[in-house]
Automatic annotation (TrEMBL):
Location (main, coarse): membrane
GO cellular component: membrane
Membrane-spanning parts: 32-57, 69-90, 110-136, 148-169, 189-214, 226-248, 268-289
Protein name per UniProt: Rhodopsin domain-containing protein
Species, as recorded: Bimuria novae-zelandiae CBS 107.79
Length: 311
């Protein structure tokens, strides 16, 4: 973005010049904003379903509501707000090519609401991870508390830095979203975004593998231990999505057509955020199935046991 002259423009002029041979279209431009609408609606329905099942299970089946439950509820509320803000960005050019977006529509609006959306996303991811880590503290037989607390501190620190990067990205702050401000300076915020994305992926790996190290010395029947591991490791299954989101962020960094490219990248941000909530809810799924669908639990257990004996 810095290589373009983004000084104040007239309403009938796009934010950036179009490619050679392309004429800006402000009346009926090409659009892919339907991807954002469909993605957010589907993801909200999925995360809401799993959130409802978790709250029902912890309240009426397990009868043990803890701090981790409140954290994942907060993560879900933040995700709802982030998805709503993401959808609002359509009004300011999201889904259109940047040369088809009038400067007066984009300036002071798109980047401001993108910052809000990113803040809500980062905080939602943070509380989803904290919910899983607090769950480990509550229920795992062996508790290397120092290691878990260290991971919690790391998650909080990089999440807050990444979520509120707009507070220190530019001087003055308004320069982050107001392209007509020519004074002051900005850091290369894309590098910071990629850095926090890398840390996000690393902590996903840690959360995925942590139950293995914590249960390795616990004396349980083989298949019961495997079942417990699978339940606890569901919290890290968002890792694949995190890697995809990180790659799309890197690919997007050098493309100035951010209102178009953000759709392809931003959908993975939303997928990661909502699936992180689903993963945080999955560990209580066994209790729900055992209560209402015991045949599923028994069939799975018998399959494991008989399969092992046949081997």
């Amino acid at each position: 973005m810095s290589s373009f002259d983004l000084s104040l423009r007239e309403e009938n002029v796009g934010v950036i010049p179009p490619p050679p041979g392309v004429t800006p279209n402000f009346i009926n431009p090409p659009s892919i904003h339907h991807i954002i609408l469909i993605t957010n609606i589907i993801l909200l329905l999925i995360s809401s379903l799993f959130m409802t099942l978790r709250l029902y299970t912890t309240r009426f089946i397990i009868r043990s509501v803890g701090v981790d439950d409140y954290m994942v509820v907060l993560a879900w509320l933040l995700a709802c707000a982030s998805s709503s803000t993401d959808t609002l960005l359509i009004r300011y050019g999201l889904g259109h090519h940047l040369w088809d977006v009038p400067f007066s529509t984009y300036n002071g609006n798109f980047l401001k609401f993108t910052a809000i959306c990113g803040t809500l996303y980062g905080l939602s991811i943070m509380f989803s991870k904290l919910s899983i880590l607090v769950l480990f503290l509550r229920f795992l037989p062996q508790k290397p508390k120092k290691a878990i607390y260290a991971i919690i501190i790391l998650v909080v620190l990089y999440s807050l830095i990444g979520s509120f990067q707009w507070l220190f990205a530019c001087q003055p702050i308004e320069k982050f979203w107001d392209l007509s401000i020519t004074r002051g300076s900005c850091i290369e915020w894309t590098k910071l975004t990629i850095f926090t994305g890398v840390l996000n992926t690393v902590t996903d790996v840690v959360i995925l593998l942590l139950p293995i190290f914590m249960l390795r010395k616990v004396q349980l029947p083989r298949w019961e231990k495997i079942g417990l591991l699978l339940i606890l490791m569901t919290g890290g299954f968002v890792l694949v999505i995190s890697v995809i989101r990180l790659k799309t962020t890197v690919d997007m960094a050098s493309n100035p057509d951010i209102t178009w490219e953000y759709v392809r990248n931003g959908k993975w941000w939303m997928v990661e955020m909502h699936i992180a909530i689903v993963c945080a809810c999955l560990p209580v799924g066994r209790a729900f199935l055992r209560k209402h669908f015991p045949c599923v639990v028994n069939y799975t257990f018998n399959t494991f046991v008989h399969g092992s004996q046949n081997d």
